[in-house]
């Protein structure tokens, strides 16, 4: 339990650091969730298969790093993986995605996230909300 709290604090600090490094503005820092149940409460997303270590919801600006896993492997890498989804929403899993994660963990910096980096879905939803639909 003590250990879990330590991991959470460390990941919270890391998230702020990495967001700054990869250009996610401070007022758009994602909310972090530590288990699938809490993440599902916010996102309405049903729990995924057992092996899932993390998840990301653009619309809720929320990230899951599942600490309920027995021996969570590399939680920092899971966090960076999900932040990469959030920062480059069009980038799909693959070698380029993996390279990006490695670069981030090495300390490479990136410009601020732009509208073009976001999924149009996000904008459509926002537009619908503004229109009150
Ligand atoms: Zn992924």
Describe this structure in words.
By secondary structure, this protein is mainly α. Helices cover 50% and strands 8% of the residues. It has a 3-stranded mixed beta sheet with strand order 1-3-2, sandwiched between helices. A hairpin with a 4-residue loop joins strand 2 and strand 3. It starts with a helix and ends with a helix. The mean pLDDT is 87. The site of zinc ion has 3 residues, from helix 3.
Main sheet attributes: strand count, strand direction, barrel closure: 3 strands, mixed
Looking across the biggest beta sheet, what order are the strands in? Answer: 1-3-2
Structure ligands? zinc ion
For this structure, the CATH topology is Zincin-like
State the helicity in percent bands: 40-55%
In terms of structural class, how would the helical and strand content be classed? mainly alpha
